């Protein structure tokens, strides 16, 4: 369970929230739920709206149910999302009663949203994704499934991670085979997409804003597994003993699905003299350091509307990597408000090429590109890079 924001989530407050949900018909008595069968999953999935990303990293994107399937046009974020990086994933359990039916899941997600949004005053549901016992993956926090959306799921580490919750309580029982398969696939796709390996550790610093929930003081460098249990970073028993005990096998299985991920970088090289344009530069390499040559690189600008419930990336320029895996593009940056443009570099993949996105690059102002014929660089159309304001 997430523990980030104003007021800690306690078992007592969660039980109270679920009791209120039961009074509203969201939850059934456990005895009645035990009679339900899990075979209803495939039928209900076919009736739910699915999201599709063009970025098929690792094993490809698994089916992800759109937020609209559970929000029903009512569960809106308070504000537009913020974006960070994805260096690791945290696995959670929600501590809901087990044995729920497939049809009850949307209402359960609305209950969790209400608990996070109104009881704790967070901007949105805390998790980035939720997986139910039928193996269905739901988009949770708004902001884009292929974006590094900052959630409220791991205090001190939200800016570096994505959060995946399994719907239910897994202190003494293991997750279902369907949920485990979905979790492995989602981890392999999401971490590969952002250029992160599935195994090993990464060192991050505890952010001051969430340090109250962390096991470590603010600004402490902490080494965490790339696929971590919530308890690895914060003072909690989440994701339950049984699920936590499965994580090592999950990491290995997901790594096998991911194949050979890559990492693409993006930064601005400032102009060296007046009248000389700045340059966007970056590289594309496999995680072992091998350069990827002759790969297409797209520069995309993000547009966010309706507080993150509508997000689109538009390609505004292209380049091709050199034999050393490098690429560059001259760019003109017009001054403006800080953060008015957010760029990312994308290798769309295809054939033997990896699919991967860079960390976002926020810029103050708008950008435009000039047509060029420099070696290792494809012609780039001139285009404004400023997205419309968030609604």
Name some characteristics of this structure:
391 residues; alpha+beta; Lysozyme-like; Immunoglobulin-like; 2 domains; 5-stranded antiparallel beta sheet; 25% strand; globular; disordered N terminus; disordered C terminus
Structure explained in plain terms:
By secondary structure, this protein is of the alpha+beta class. The chain is 21% helix and 25% strand. The protein folds into two domains: 11-258, Peptidoglycan recognition protein-like (Lysozyme-like, 3-Layer(aba) Sandwich), CATH 3.40.80.10; 262-369, Immunoglobulins (Immunoglobulin-like), CATH 2.60.40.10. The chain has eight helices and 19 strands. A hairpin with an 8-residue loop joins strand 16 (341-347) and strand 17 (356-357). Helix 6 (177-193) crosses helix 8 (241-258). The longest helix has 18 residues, at 241-258.
Task: Give a quick summary of the entry.
This protein is α+β, with helices and mostly antiparallel strands. The protein is 21% helix and 25% strand.
Total beta strands: 19
Mean pLDDT: 86
Order of helices and strands: HHHEEHEHEEEHEEEHHEEEEEEEEEE
End-to-end Cα distance, whole Å, is: 30 Å
The coarse overall form would be globular
Radius of gyration: 21 Å
> Any low-confidence stretches, pLDDT <50, length ≥5?
1-41, 372-391
Strand order of the largest sheet: 1-2-5-4-6-3-9
Largest sheet: 7 strands, mixed
Give me the oligomer status.
single chain
